[in-house]
Specification:
Layout (H helix, E strand, L loop, with lengths): L1 H17 L9 E2 L4 E8 L8 E3 L6 E7 L8 E8 L10 H4 E3 L3 E2 L2 E4 L8 E7 L4 E3 L3 E9 L5 E11 L4 E7 L10 E9 L8 H4 E7 L2 E9 L3 E2 L3 E4 L6 E3 L5 E4 L10 E7 L2 E6 L20 E3 L10 E3 L17 E3 L7 H6 L3 E9 L7 E6 L14 E3 L4 E9 L1 E11 L20 E8 L8 E9 L3
Parallel strand pairs: 3-12, 22-26
Antiparallel strand pairs: 1-12, 2-4, 4-9, 5-7, 5-11, 6-10, 8-9, 11-12, 13-14, 14-18, 14-19, 15-16, 15-31, 17-18, 20-30, 21-22, 23-30, 24-25, 26-29, 27-30, 28-29, 31-32
Length: 458
């Protein structure tokens, strides 16, 4: 009896020890030596990390450690979550076939590059584990050599498709948003799949360009029919349209993109000066190629197959806005080329600048996008330089193709404002993803029974 009491007394301590005090349940990189984190469907470089339960596809996590130290003992684990990303009530044995807390054994060293780093990667699922339940998952990567120090977290989803989703883009219900926003209506068709209490058991989430920072969550059916649930609201599933993302091609150091003012190398370190950007808040919408805020690690200095290629010979014009940027296309890339892009690419100190006639008092300016994990990060904060009448920032990026925009953070606010730096236009092409979660009465977790990705033009 004494042993039982002692064990029970220790449980709170053991639980608290097992919890991560600094854990953030969203995409986050915890240390500066971890760079170029990518997490996507294997073979689809700019895809959302979503798997279909039981299908043979896999997710690929990759990252660099630029510390220059020897190989680290990185370990990964996965945790099942509810629709709101809190931990679910399932035990690991219920949602995993195999083991979590496995070492990342795949790594290689950079070569033919002046930059020194170690590249790590792991595929999920793999021979050590497979997923048994649909829903949300949180991937956690630790440095096991340093008391299991958390270094990366990434959200991903496993879907068990049971329903069909039919969506349509509609004119925003509010007249004031007609030219600046995009509104979505959709219905869920579930023939043969019984949902007894739709408003209690179904929840929808809508993502714009794969972002969770501005996701619309907790959406319940508006009208319920026997085998069809309508999410036809007015002024509820509405997103600011933004404008097409800016982009910079940093794939070549020997043959740099024409939009770069300069690319220099000194003592093994590369520095790129990017042509100065201008604010777009008051400018007309301009059609241009983008990858919806994402980025791709890629190298044009070697003879590898490229995933983004130009289809004409035009040169970039002022501020990188030209007909040439409308002539890019995305192609598949063979896994055999990954060595060139992942191991032979340099890290570049890229100097960004945003023209401004004066300092924007009461607001901080940030570079923003997939390269910042859709967060306002201190290392991407810009400072005003009156000598050049521009906000400037120098950030370290691996050779690649990067989308980005500029965000303004008003003093005392927590949400970014893009009205002055970028503006909104209803014809902007955006990618949307609808996720349908289902928890029947008495259920212990949220099942992901439907998902669909589409663009605002289809």
């Amino acid at each position: 009896m004494k042993k039982i009491l002692t064990f029970l007394f220790c449980i709170p301590f053991l639980l608290s020890y097992g919890q991560d005090e600094n854990l953030r349940n969203y995409d986050y990189t915890y240390y500066d030596n971890i760079r170029s984190v990518k997490f996507h469907v294997d073979g689809e470089l700019i895809s959302l990390p979503i798997l279909a339960l039981g299908w043979p596809n896999a997710l690929l996590l990759s990252f660099d450690d630029i510390s220059g130290e020897d190989v680290r003992d990185y370990v990964y684990s996965v945790e099942h979550c509810n629709a709101d990303w809190t931990p679910s009530n399932l035990t690991e044995i219920e949602y995993l076939d195999g083991f979590s807390d496995e070492r990342i054994d795949n790594y290689d060293y950079s070569f033919k590059a002046k930059s020194i780093y170690t590249h790590y990667w792991v595929r999920l699922p793999n021979e050590d584990m497979a997923f048994l339940k649909s829903g949300n998952y949180l991937l956690k990567v630790y440095d096991d050599e340093d008391e299991k120090k958390l270094v990366i977290t990434r959200r991903f989803m496993v879907a068990d498709p049971q329903v069909d989703i039919v969506q349509r883009m509609v004119r925003p219900a509010q007249v004031s948003k007609n030219r600046t926003h995009q509104e979505i209506d959709f219905k869920v068709i579930h023939e043969g799949f019984e949902i007894r209490n739709p408003r209690q058991e179904l929840t929808a989430v809508v993502l714009q360009n794969g972002r969770w920072d501005n996701a619309i969550t907790g959406i319940k059916p508006f009208i319920s029919r026997l085998e069809e649930q309508s999410f036809d609201y007015q002024d509820k599933i509405v997103f600011p349209a933004g404008k097409e993302f800016r982009s910079i091609d940093l794939r070549g150091v020997r043959y740099p993109d024409p939009r770069l003012v300069s690319m220099t190398e000194q003592n093994g370190k590369y520095e790129a000066v990017i042509e100065t950007d201008i604010k777009r808040g008051g400018m007309a919408h301009f059609e241009r190629f983008d990858i919806n805020g994402n980025f791709i690690i890629e190298n044009t200095d070697e003879n590898g197959r490229l995933s983004i290629r130009r289809t004409d010979n035009s040169q970039s014009g002022q501020n990188g806005v030209s007909d040439a940027e409308r002539q890019y296309q995305i192609f598949g890339r063979d896994d055999s080329q990954d060595e060139i892009h992942n191991l032979q690419s340099e890290y570049i100190d890229a100097l960004f600048s945003l023209k401004s006639s004066g300092e924007m008092y009461g607001e901080d300016i940030y570079i923003f996008g997939g390269l910042t994990e859709w967060q306002l990060k201190p290392e991407f904060k810009m400072v005003y330089n009156p000598a050049v009448n521009a906000y400037v920032a120098k950030v370290k990026l691996k050779q690649g193709y990067y989308d980005y925009i500029y965000a303004a953070l008003p003093e005392g606010k927590s949400e970014a404002d893009f009205e002055v730096t970028e503006g909104d236009w209803h014809e902007t092409e955006n990618e949307y993803t609808i996720l349908i979660y289902y928890r029947p009465f008495g259920g212990r977790y949220d099942q992901l029974i439907g998902m669909k990705t589409f663009t605002s033009r289809r």
